[in-house]
């Protein structure tokens, strides 16, 4: 086994294979980071919709809550298949990458909504009352008082979830998106040993996930040491 | 856009899908229990083990948490045969998921070890408990109570991650959904029903775990 691998390694790490893997790596990064960013933006919207002080509209709150509760309970693969076939049957000319991106966005929105809700709820109610007493509109309270304080609570877990989405995008190989896992499968089918193919991408995944997680953990420590200003005593 | 959803062709297959859900639960339970044992063992090493072993365990945890489960199972399923170890798809998925869960459960349980009161450990030492005895009689009961909510949460995550077993042709819920899909070609219907079954399944699990938690430890776990 080892003899075969040492024989294959120079061919495996040849120029074209490396370009191929590089492209796949870029796709994985794009898929996860772009998907997570858009998804987190939607998640914030959901959290704002669910917040009792911001939206009095009950149907909207119920809708947002239902979405968040349900979409967190569907596995990524099943979600991906639903999105895939929904696009296919609607007849829209959409690339596989976009379909996977939509799936990441759908999941990220549901998870981020929960984090954002925790962030919004970390601001004590007296601050809202005080701001309202000073005749601030609710959107102005959100923008100038709540958001600047809540991002400390929100930001660190977002990094953790982003790592989760980097890992989830490996499932997008199932519909044929050209990302790392799919690239490894292709190289494996071309006859390279599975140890080289999957070992290499495991390492690549590790190299992009670990720093992301590390940044999140560092942020968590740094933001936690600073005292968060409490509301009016 | 001329597609109409026809559920009547799929509804007959729902019992078949639900039988797959049973296998999903089985796989989740196996990987959770094995992962829990791995996690307990690792957390013990991280708290009381020698430095070399600690580094090894830390490396295992960091590696498994920062790589996708799917690729880990691919690795087990395709690389081990090259070394002469042939695994059935079910075994490969179960091993991969257990190792993966082991890493997460190590992280969770280490926090439990850290939350132990010094006095409890001192008392156990004073009574001449060996390390395994102390872990089993003092730490595990403490962890089971204090960590019940995150452990239950991890089980729900396990239920959802079993869906990747379908990629290795294990006939659990998603795998059976693939089968029904290739029989009926009602893809969107099949997978939307599967999604609903997953939602129901995890809701039932959450509810059951919350009730068990209340009954066992009087933990006020959130039901949903």
From TrEMBL, chain A:
Keyword field: Cell membrane, Membrane, Transmembrane, Transmembrane helix, Transport
Transmembrane residue ranges: 24-49, 96-120, 192-212
Domain ABC transmembrane type-1: residue ranges: 25-208
Keyword Transmembrane attributed: yes
Single Gene Ontology BP annotation: amino acid transport
Intracellular or extracellular location(s): Cell inner membrane; Cell membrane
Pfam families: BPD_transp_1 (PF00528)
Family: Belongs to the binding-protein-dependent transport system permease family. HisMQ subfamily.
NCBIfam families according to UniProt: HEQRo_perm_3TM
Protein name, entry field: Amino acid ABC transporter permease
Record organism: Falsiroseomonas algicola
From TrEMBL, chain B:
Compartment annotation: Cell inner membrane; Cell membrane
TM spans (from-to): 20-43, 55-80, 86-107, 151-170, 190-217
Start and end residues of each ABC transmembrane type-1 domain: 21-209
Keywords, comma-separated and alphabetical: Cell membrane, Membrane, Transmembrane, Transmembrane helix, Transport
A molecular-function term among this protein's GO annotations: transmembrane transporter activity
GO biological process, one term: amino acid transport
Pfam families xrefs: BPD_transp_1 (PF00528)
GO annotation, cellular component aspect: ATP-binding cassette (ABC) transporter complex
InterPro entries tied to this protein: AA_ABC_transptr_permease_3TM (IPR010065), ArtM/GltK/GlnP/TcyL/YhdX-like (IPR043429), MetI-like (IPR000515), MetI-like_sf (IPR035906)
Domain of life: Bacteria
Topology versus the membrane: Multi-pass membrane protein
Zinc in keyword set: no
NCBIfam families: HEQRo_perm_3TM (TIGR01726)
Name of the protein this chain belongs to: Amino acid ABC transporter permease
Species: Falsiroseomonas algicola
